[in-house]
Amino acid sequence: MKSLIYAVSLASAMVVSSASAAAAPVAQEASTHPVPAVQDTETPAQRDARMGWWRQARFGMFIHWGLYAVPAGVWNGKPVDSIGEWIMYNGKIPVADYKKLASRFNPAKFDAHAWVALAKAAGMKYIVITAKHHDGFAMFDSKANPFNIVDATPFKRDPLKALAKEAQKQGIKLGFYYSQDQDWTAPGGAAMTYDKLHDGHWDKAQQGDFAEYLHTKAIPQLKELLSNYQPSPAIIWFDTPTAEMTPQLASEIVTLLNQHPNLIWNNRLGGGYNGDTETPEQNVPAQGYPGRDWETCMTINDTWGYKSNDTNFKSTRELLRTLVDVASKGGNLLLNVGPDAQGVIPAPEAERLQVIGKWLDVNGESIYGTGPTPFPGDHGTFSTTEKTVGENKPKWIPAWDWRATTKPGKIYIHLLTWPGKTFHLANVTAQIKQAYFLADPKHAPLTYTQKGNALDLQLPGKPIDSNDTVVVLKTK
Ligand code: GLC
């Protein structure tokens, strides 16, 4: 399956506006991969076993944290447009100047326990944190390259070690995001651009050979990430592959990944490898990706990495219904937080996560381990004027009426907008045996009539939860 992630990623990241699409990855047939990946060789049963926990999880925490939290969106006193972790690129900051940020990075308030506890309280089942973003700064102890948090900052500690320990203690999976392709401070690392005729570099210090960068930095660092942490990461989350990542070069990374048979990795490696998961960014596709595992990644405000002046936080209601929308289409939501330079997750982000967690405490049964909606039809329309960010296709405008998720013998109806005293459902092919509110511990029966495939449910005047009141329809 081809992926359009370049375009999506770039459009959200770059200040340049361009009608031309970014280079699309070259999709290859599995049989032509220079080195077969686990997805090419495993049986469907092996695949189900490998993906099992991830499919149950439905909700994870993305953490974008790095040196970019120090300028926090402002350079030389001026705000730099677009997402925080791209400040070096968008501000065309010279390599030497950017590297100096390391001496100012001392996140004294970093608390691995608190971060993991927040993810748990939010009902998230896994965490994916930036081990190295496009700026090339390693947030871990790296012998392969000195531009890292232990060697180059006054902090001198490896936060990933602490997080791995806490994640294990608190029973949550941990994965590492690693920018394998773009690296703006290592000679030879890629810098993307819309304009395929020129590369996106802006400083002579960036010049070099891509293969050499891979051999001397990216691959050795990936080895470190895969072998220095206990337990070893559950996920490697690649990003923004460019044309530099040939099938041959990507296959060298695949050789390494293949040594970790339980590992899950996404579709952003490049070189024609499809990985395990589709990764729509900042949007939930109309129908999900039937037959493919997928995960929407999304920001709570408009940036991944911390920006002091971005307070455009989505409401809890919006975030919660996005989670429900994703689950109803069989996907996961990887919701981002951007800790600041002190190591603190901004309070407005933490507060929203707490509220979602409270809802999940009551209604988690209708999210975790659920299957997609049994009801055909769309909840929304394609815009006739707007395009999906970075993609040349119409933007999907969701309707926030209701959604459904399923488990064997149960259909969960998520009422996102209270329908009034009756709720009508067409296309109910199963015989309904019982209906009740999931939030009602007594499971007091709700009145309904079923005629043919039409179901009419009688409801009280007010929702139990104004964000999402879940009705359970038992079919067995
Ligand atoms: C994009 C951006 C990046 C961010 C990522 C999250 O690819 O380049 O900054 O990490 O999206 O999905």
Describe what you observe in this structure.
With 476 residues, the protein is of the alpha/beta class. It has two domains: 364 residues, Glycosidases (TIM Barrel), CATH 3.20.20; 96 residues, Immunoglobulin-like (Sandwich). Helix content is 25%, strand content 19%. The protein contains twelve helices and 19 strands. The strands form five sheets. The chain has an eight-stranded parallel sheet, with helices on both faces. A four-stranded antiparallel sheet has the order 13-14-19-16. Strands 15-18-17 form a three-stranded antiparallel sheet, with no helix packed on it. The chain starts with a helix and ends with a strand. 48% of the residues are buried. Alpha-D-glucopyranose binds next to α1.
Features:
single chain; alpha/beta; 2 domains; 8-stranded parallel sheet; 12 helices; globular; disordered N terminus
Report the average pLDDT across residues.
93
Rg computed from alpha carbons, rounded to a whole number of angstroms: 23 Å
- What's the β-strand tally? 19
Question: Distance between termini?
Answer: 37 Å
Main sheet attributes: strand count, strand direction, barrel closure: 8 strands, parallel
Question: Which strands sit side by side, in order, in the main sheet?
Answer: 7-6-5-4-1-10-9-8
Large-scale geometry: globular
Looking at the structure, the CATH topology of the largest domain is TIM Barrel
What percent strand?
A: 15-25%
- The number of domains is 2
